[in-house]
């Protein structure tokens, strides 16, 4: 009887333990950069005193900061 209880307890404990998750971080694209390319533009990253800023050159030659373009078209 003690062996049965011991086996049941061991089974319950083993069933409750979880295997380690091998989760990989998935890269998520910058929505403003994706929108620039979807609009037919080309993306250029410029170094500034504050860091890096992405600029989108649209097919008509207009150059606009990528987030300004995204916000302008997604109000």
UniProtKB/TrEMBL annotation:
Signal peptide: 1-19
Flavoprotein among keywords: no
Keyword Signal included in the entry's annotation: yes
Matches recorded under PROSITE patterns: PROKAR_LIPOPROTEIN
Keywords: Signal
Family annotation (PANTHER family): HEMOLYSIN, HEMOLYSIN-RELATED
Protein name, entry field: DUF333 domain-containing protein
